[in-house]
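re: ur question from the group chat, yeah i did fold both. here u go
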Amino acid sequence: MIRLTDYSDFSINYHIKIFIADCANLEDIKSAVMYRLWYAFKREGITIPFPIRDVRMREAASGDETQREKQVGELQDLLGSLDLFISLTSDDMRRIAEQAQIRVYGEGEYLVREGEPGSSLYLIRDGAVTLTVAQADGRQTALAKMTSGQFFGERSLLTGMQRSATVTADTDVVAVVIDKPVLAPILQANTKLAESLAAVLEERDADRAARRQADSQAPAAPTSQLVWLQRITRFFGLD
């Protein structure tokens, strides 16, 4: 249960009431809840309030602008190393870097869950994650581990497909998130990019099919470039 309790000088205060069965673990459970709340606040840009005077200096503003420009440049370089975006221009890459979100996750948190809707790509900037899929008996089978510089969710970003795996943070993770609205204007301005992106999806899908066969799992034929192109075109409403 969550109740708003009062408006104070520097904060809006809420009271959270948690019902548990294992009272012996009260402190551990309380700590885990606070831990998850902190990361949720971090992702939403909510800071822990403290008394502050709103004094702004010109030098500080200039420093913030320089820091932001540095961050955009680093993101542009990171995104430029991905095979998915190899056909984009430097201007397109900068536009994506400027609008990408930075999200922080704590160890054990889910970045995405299998079967839920999605329209975004996740690029691991720092940390490590594990991808798992559910079996018929409910067990989770590990598919792969990903670390800094690797990404997932390209099919959801480009076609709106449901998440094909659950992704869990093995450590604290900093992820760069690119949503459909960021990519849509770029594709609408240059519809030929859809063909290049479809080719990358076909290649990555073929790699997945080869890994399944190597792991003695049920073989599956990769989806063709034409089918991926049709899905991208339909998802983004391209002519």
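okk and heres the other one u asked abt
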Amino acid sequence: MDGSGLNAGRLLRRLRDLSQLNFLFEAGPGGEYPNFKLTATQAELRPPGRYAFRDLLDTLAQVAGARWEFRWGVVVLSPDPKARKAE
């Protein structure tokens, strides 16, 4: 998957189309959400090539300060408290 030139919304749509899975955004205890204001470089996730979907999710979570898990038949993205402390 090549996410170059995409914004965060289009990137998530592309990932959804690729995986046939929906995404759910979960708020943290303080009402915060992961940061999906990605630059074009961040939205690329990885250099063009073939990657496992899990690897793409790991990179997306790292860039957005999030964590992901598969729950309720969807990919749930929530803020990562460890990433917030590092900021």
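fwiw on the second one: The CA atoms of residues 61 and 67 lie 5 Å apart. The chain has one domain: 8-86. idk if thats what u expected
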